[in-house]
Design goal:
The protein is mainly alpha-helical and about 475 residues long. It has four domains: about 140 residues, HUPs (Rossmann fold, 3-Layer(aba) Sandwich), CATH 3.40.50; about 140 residues, Rossmann fold (3-Layer(aba) Sandwich), CATH 3.40.50.620; about 55 residues, Orthogonal Bundle (Helicase, Ruva Protein, domain 3); about 90 residues, Arc Repressor Mutant, subunit A. It is built from 20 helices and twelve strands. The strands form five sheets. Strands 1-2-3 form a three-stranded parallel beta sheet. It has a three-stranded antiparallel beta sheet with strand order 4-5-8. Helix 6 links the parallel strand 9 and strand 10. The protein binds one RNA strand of 78 nucleotides through helix 4, strand 7, helix 5, strand 12 and helix 10.
Length: about 475
RNA sequence: GGCCCCAUCGUCUAGUCUGGCCUAGGACACCAGGUUUUCAUCCUGGCGACAGGGGUUCAAAUCCCCUUGGGGUCACCA
């Protein structure tokens, strides 16, 4: 039997990071078992469903590399299934369920009052069954309720084992609204059975929906699929991850410059582990080893620190060409360069690659590149000096930098050879009986204005001979005033 | 509140189903060293957990019960 799973987002907002994990686990399960991954948009609520949300969700899935295998159109690439396009099917199914459902003429107002009264009395809110056995119609406006039988209903959850609910706890839930539109629990079962879904893998918040759905499968005479409910992703407050405790939209992480591979890796770690010691693993390894039964039962608190570390792991390990391509949009957005000159084959490509090499191990996110490279793009006479860099520089004899400039100038006539210059400079410092910081701290301030950063000779190579000399000249003036002996 | 789920370092987790290999392993964060012209990277070390109480057993993080704690859910939303 080939496995078939689905991810069924509702286009009522952007793709939630927790939803992304659910999608990932479904996708990984399908790929691991050689099955099919179906995408189904649950847009039965016309009030809240928006096309732009669907677009954003699809983009998010593509960004993570979670491809789906089919859709309503022929050939491909496939669009997702949309429930709004399948209302006819639901009508037919509802019609076939006469023996297991009944028309309820209670007004929304009456139900609200009933609920409030029950709550006030400290009772569990539930439908009182007023219309369960009505002899005659009470008007045109009615909803269709599922007639929950006596007894109990259980499911064998792949993660939690057998879970049993008393049917008395399951309300006679509404299948079809007064306006004729079907509700969630109803369409889910219609579609999961029609699409021959074999494994329903979803978040734990759906666990209490499951008895309703199982009961409907039975009424339909269909064997329910296997179920697995993933633990929730939690915020610092241990409650379901929400906007209160941080960014919850997948889009936010894309905008911030997280590598998608790192997002996949980190998300996989929320409830699942490859083994007892591996944190960093590829999507291929995830697919090769993923097992739903191995997903943990307890909720996972989302840790932004570890997420950032994970991003850095991927950035540092990345191929320079690809890293450059992924950072380029951020540099362009910051107004530092044009996309064309940074692109492969562009006028400044080689120079840009060297710049990226200089900061690759100093950034964790693509968006951090412009900031780390700000000194490179600054005009030679307007480098912003960091307070600490200036303090470091002024601890030393100001004459050293001037002497060095005299020594350096003729040596840069043919351009900057970083390796050779580094060796020669070290020798120069030693010959003078100086310590390295005596030269390097003022030099670093003059060239970059920063207290830390990349190797100074690589920096000079990037700035070029003229730029480097100009910055040192300017630095001598700017640092000179209050330099101590 | 009813029902349901859950419970190993601050956090993510391995180990739990199939009790002994666990004086509980890894990672993030934090702290201390080392490397480096600085920052970062990298390396080494440290800190740090089986929620509590009863059982069962020769033996329990692992099985059972209770307590406590946390979460989810109770719509003509999904």
């Amino acid at each position: 039997m080939t496995t078939r799973v689905r991810f069924a987002p509702s286009p009522t907002g952007s793709l939630h990071i927790g939803g992304a994990r659910t999608a990932l686990f479904n996708w990984a399960f399908a790929r691991h078992t050689g099955g099919r991954f179906v995408l189904r948009v649950e847009d039965t609520d016309p009030e809240r469903s928006k096309p732009e949300h669907e677009t954003a969700i699809l983009e998010g899935l593509r960004w993570l590399g979670l491809d789906w295998d089919e859709g309503p159109d022929v050939g491909g690439p496939f669009g997702p299934y949309r429930q709004s396009e399948r209302f006819d099917r639901y009508r037919d199914v509802a019609a076939s369920l006469a023996a297991h459902s009944y028309r309820c003429y209670c007004s929304a107002e009456r139900l609200t009052e009933l609920r409030e009264a029950q709550k006030a009395a400290g009772e569990t809110p539930r439908y009182d069954g007023r219309c369960r056995d009505l002899a005659a119609a009470e008007g045109d406006s009615h909803v269709l309720r599922f007639r929950v039988p006596e007894g109990e209903t259980s499911l064998d959850d792949l993660i939690r084992g057998r879970v049993t609910f008393s049917n008395a706890e399951v309300d006679d839930w509404i299948m079809v609204r007064a306006d004729g539109s079907p509700t969630y629990n109803f369409v889910v079962v219609c579609d999961d059975s029609a699409m021959e879904i074999t494994h329903v893998l979803r978040g734990e918040e759906h666990l209490t929906n499951t008895p309703k759905q199982v009961l409907l499968y039975r009424a339909l005479g269909i064997e329910p699929p296997a179920f697995a409910h993933f633990p929730l992703m939690l915020g610092k407050d241990k409650k379901k991850l929400s906007k209160r405790t941080g960014d919850t939209a997948l889009q936010d992480y894309r905008d911030k410059g997280f590598p998608p591979e790192a997002v996949v890796n980190f998300l996989a770690l929320q409830g699942w582990a490859l083994d007892d010691k591996t944190d960093v693993f590829s999507t291929e390894e995830l697919v090769r080893n993923f097992d739903v039964g191995g997903v943990s039962k307890a909720g996972a608190v989302f840790d932004p620190d570890k997420f950032l570390w994970m991003a850095g792991e991927y950035v540092r390990a990345d191929d320079v060409e690809r890293l450059a391509d992924r950072c380029a949009p951020h540099l362009v957005a910051a107004g530092r360069a044009t996309a064309d000159e940074l692109a492969a084959g562009g006028a400044r490509r080689e120079w840009y690659l060297n710049a990226v090499r200089l900061v690759q191990e100093r950034i964790s996110l693509y968006s951090e590149l412009p900031g780390k490279l700000a000194w490179v793009f600054a005009p030679d006479d307007e480098v912003a000096y960091d307070e600490k860099a200036v303090a470091n520089a002024r601890k030393h004899d100001g004459a050293v930098l001037a002497d060095y400039l005299d020594w350096l100038r003729p040596r840069l006539a043919g351009g900057v050879d970083a390796a050779a210059l580094r060796d020669a400079t070290r020798a120069w410092v030693k010959e003078r009986g100086l310590k390295f910081p005596a030269l390097f701290q003022p030099l670093r301030c003059a060239l970059t204005g920063e207290a830390g950063g990349p190797d100074l000779f690589d920096a000079m190579a990037l700035l070029g001979a003229d730029g480097s000399l100009a910055r040192i000249e300017r630095g001598i003036v700017r640092l000179g005033g209050e330099a101590s002996g």
